[in-house]
Design a protein that fits this description.
The protein is an alpha+beta fold. The protein has three domains: 65 residues, Arc Repressor Mutant, subunit A; 52 residues; 95 residues, no CATH class. Helices cover 48% and strands 15% of the residues. The chain is built from nine helices and nine strands. The chain has a three-stranded antiparallel sheet with strand order 1-3-2. Strands 4-5 form a two-stranded antiparallel sheet. The chain has a two-stranded parallel ribbon with strand order 6-7. A hairpin with a 3-residue loop joins strand 2 and strand 3. Helix 6 runs parallel beside helix 7.
């Protein structure tokens, strides 16, 4: 039996529930790269839902790179890590090319650019080092501020890994995440949403249109993971909060 149950109490569309569940099963290792999934009609019959619902979920997963469909053979799980690695490298190369070109327009040589970039990275590392452990003021791994007996503080833990630890160990109802910055963050949030967790997250962007233009954030909006978008802007000395319902 395919491991999926409809959440009748959820306002998340059924095709999104199915899509998120399959994405979770892939990310969690239940389905491995190369595994063949049931046909659209076969899965629709097995879990007793409409053919078009399954087809829409599959198409979304194909679009996002989780699955690949081959005529005459079926639907298979893709190797996300290998695919994203190549895409990420290409994007990084393009960004670096633009940066170097802009520096050269300022009259800098390659050696000048290398030294300037090294100084910048060194400053960023110092800033990150100061920020680590800021909430609990960690010193030699021990919190120096009172954060409560029921609060765990993890040091040096990547965001996506931390989300997975919480999801598996604590069965949370709500997960709050500051600054979505990487594809692995998006995969972790998608997995959490597929488990019925309510999400609260921040991201840098001027507005909804700006977020939709960025490949990193677009799937989160298209798949209905969030119900509201809150845009924070400044007007003089005060902050203004614009709330937009996404679905």
């Amino acid at each position: 039996m395919f491991p999926f149950e409809i959440d009748e109490a959820s306002d998340v569309p059924l095709w999104v529930q199915l899509r998120n569940r399959i994405a979770y099963l892939i990310n969690d290792g239940y389905f491995k790269p190369g595994d063949k999934l049931p046909t659209v009609r076969g899965l629709a019959s097995e879990i007793s839902i409409n053919y078009n619902t399954v087809n829409k979920a599959y198409l979304s997963l194909v679009s996002d790179g989780y699955l690949e469909s081959t005529r005459g053979r079926g639907v298979f799980v893709t190797d996300m890590a290998a695919a994203e690695g190549g895409e990420a490298r290409a994007e990084v190369e393009a960004v670096l090319d633009d940066c170097i070109a802009s520096c050269r327009d300022l009259g800098m040589g390659l050696d000048d650019i290398e030294r300037a970039m090294g100084r910048k990275i060194k400053r960023l590392k110092h800033e990150e080092a100061r920020e680590r452990g800021e909430v609990a003021a960690l010193y030699r791994g021990l919190p120096q501020l009172e954060v409560g007996r029921r609060t765990d503080v993890a040091e040096g833990c990547p965001k996506a890994q931390g989300l997975m630890l919480l999801l598996r160990a604590m069965n949370p109802q709500v997960l709050a995440v500051d600054e979505i910055t990487a594809p692995e963050d998006v995969r972790a949030l998608t997995m959490a949403a597929g488990c019925g967790v309510t999400l609260l997250a921040t991201a840098h962007g001027e507005d909804r249109t700006a977020l939709e233009r960025r490949p990193l954030y677009r799937p989160l909006l298209e798949e209905g993971l969030f119900r509201f978008l809150v845009r924070i802007r400044r007007e003089g000395e005060r902050h203004v909060y614009d709330v937009e319902e996404l679905r």
